[in-house]
Amino acid sequence: MPSVHTVLKNSLQFPWINLLNKQTSELTVQMASIKDLDVGEKFSSKLEEIRTKLLSQAMGEMLNEATVEFCQAHKQYMKSVLDTCSKKCWDDETMFETIQVYTEELKRQNSVMRERSGERPEILGSIQDKESHKELLIQKIEQLKQEQAKNRELIHSQNKANKDRLKNLNKIKEIFQERLSLEIRKIQGEKLQFIFRNINHKNPQSAYTFLLRITEDGVYQIVSCDPPLAQMDHLERRLQETNNLSAFLSNVRKEFVALNNITKTA
């Protein structure tokens, strides 16, 4: 904003001020040519009065114009200051709101950290429990693997034993078919039917049979016998103890022959 001194200085540059000074100078020259002292003094006094009046009017107008210009400059300056203050105030409010947001967020994070710190022992305990459970599961899996390996070995050995038994049965089948008139049939359900003939001389084709199966454990088991033999349970136990199927079949045939003789005698 311009100062009052600057405004007054600019106002003194008006042309009419120069004109007033010029006219005053001319009157002063004319006054100097007057010889009568009284007239000269009156004229000087009047001239000074006119000069003072004109100067007062000029100064009044100049001051009015300077005041108006000063007021306008002051208004512009105050408007600029007000705009600057308003912007500064808005910036400060924005910064204060941002600080408040950061403060609240910091409080929230601190609260979360405290909650997590309180939960940490529970989390650690849960992790330890899970680790213990994991170790138990690993141990159980290892046990199952070992048991599975043993079962595979057992199954393999049983399959091998069954294959060996089947080979023996095939050999026995050929021998007994020729010598003992024995027929062996495979029945549904993994069972074998043994059929003896030529026991009853009156009816050589009369069939004396029994069903045999091999359990999952590789044990021989008699399922049925027709006609029933009193010694079949004893013969079955002997077969399970010795695994000698040839001897078992011979003994069964003998029992069928004995049963036929008893029936014939009766």
From TrEMBL:
Keyword field: Cell cycle, Cell division, Centromere, Chromosome, Coiled coil, Kinetochore, Mitosis, Nucleus
Coiled-coil blocks: 127-154
InterPro entries: Spc25, Spc25_C
Segments crossing the lipid bilayer: none
Localization per Swiss-Prot or TrEMBL: Chromosome, Centromere; Nucleus; Chromosome, Centromere, Kinetochore
A single BP term in Gene Ontology: chromosome segregation
Pfam families: Spindle_Spc25
Cellular component aspect of the GO annotation: Ndc80 complex; nucleus
Stated role: Acts as a component of the essential kinetochore-associated NDC80 complex, which is required for chromosome segregation and spindle checkpoint activity. Required for kinetochore integrity and the organization of stable microtubule binding sites in the outer plate of the kinetochore. The NDC80 complex synergistically enhances the affinity of the SKA1 complex for microtubules and may allow the NDC80 complex to track depolymerizing microtubules.
Complex formation: Component of the NDC80 complex, which is composed of ndc80, cdca1, spbc24 and spbc25. The NDC80 complex interacts with mis12 and zwint.
Family indicated by similarity: Belongs to the SPC25 family.
Name of this chain's protein: Kinetochore protein SPC25
Gene from which the chain derives: spc25
